[in-house]
What we know:
By secondary structure, the protein is α/β, with parallel strands linked by helices. The protein is built from 13 helices and 14 strands. It has helices at residues 18-28, 46-56, 72-82, 99-105, 117-121, 124-136, 156-159, 176-183, 205-216, 270-281, 298-306, 323-331, 340-353, and strands at 10-14, 38-43, 60-63, 87-91, 108-110, 166-172, 193-199, 220-223, 234-237, 243-247, 254-258, 285-289, 310-314, 336-338. Helix 10 (270-281) packs parallel to helix 11 and helix 11 (298-306) runs parallel beside helix 12.
Amino acid sequence: xxxxxxxxxxxxxxxxxxxxxxxxxxxxxxxxxxxxxxxxxxxxxxxxxxxxxxxxxxxxxxxxxxxxxxxxxxxxxxxxxxxxxxxxxxxxxxxxxxxxxxxxxxxxxxxxxxxxxxxxxxxxxxxxxxxxxxxxxxxxxxxxxxxxxxxxxxxxxxxxxxxxxxxxxxxxxxxxxxxxxxxxxxxxxxxxxxxxxxxxxxxxxxxxxxxxxxxxxxxxxxxxxxxxxxxxxxxxxxxxxxxxxxxxxxxxxxxxxxxxxxxxxxxxxxxxxxxxxxxxxxxxxxxxxxxxxxxxxxxxxxxxxxxxxxxxxxxxxxxxxxxxxxxxxxxxxxxxxxxxxxxxxxxxxxxxxxxxxxx
Length: 359
């Protein structure tokens, strides 16, 4: 952490509004530390926030939720997995999928309905108290708040769906929540396919991500549970801290969760999922590698490709961080490199080629 020269705690202020950044900076103590804290930096979106957490190592972060590029929920997930520290949510709108994140952090400040300077400055006492509470919080507790796996086969809405005949496996890391929010709602239904998603995020945030995607998509999107049958028109998000695989069973493929060692430093990782899709679905599998740092998914996508499935990668121009898709191309498992907006159409083509006709 980075204490100021005066020994005051340092704060990173994250908000897409320049006015909010200025006012929050002032009420917390400014950049010179005239108040109880010193604002060490500000960020305009979630991606900028992740970068500046690593650059400045603030003691606490204030986080808006609704932002471009990478929203607050996505940024919280990356910060808590890569460089954990207290975070205070400062937002006027806690939209779908954000409740779990705010409950877990147990700290939140609501922006006033009126965005006047006077109303925003009225946040000062509440915000300062929330920052003090955040600094006293034990953030090590956050990682144990994920619920243990409970078989979801009891859910009638899943049980009524036919078993999936095809699988679309997706890997994403930095910038992934936004990319998934664009891609998953556009994927085709009625083709007998299930979607399996690995997004690099810690426990609890993956459940919030699934809830958010569920509100946007014709697919039913759930956080995966151990032993769940894999059914059509359903998307499964790997839970934080668990690798997700598909395994063959008597009645059809099911999901297996395990806490074997991290792969490429992360758990969940895409490579274990992709390899299992190659083994179980073979030619009926489609793999997609989206934006992210590192090379997770590259070897697994090659396995899908070598098993007769299709491998797709997001292009450099539309990726927040192109590391993962570039590594997938270099590994030789990519059949097409596409802008994010064209991937769903190509997935549809691949599913039809592999027997995913309607009916």
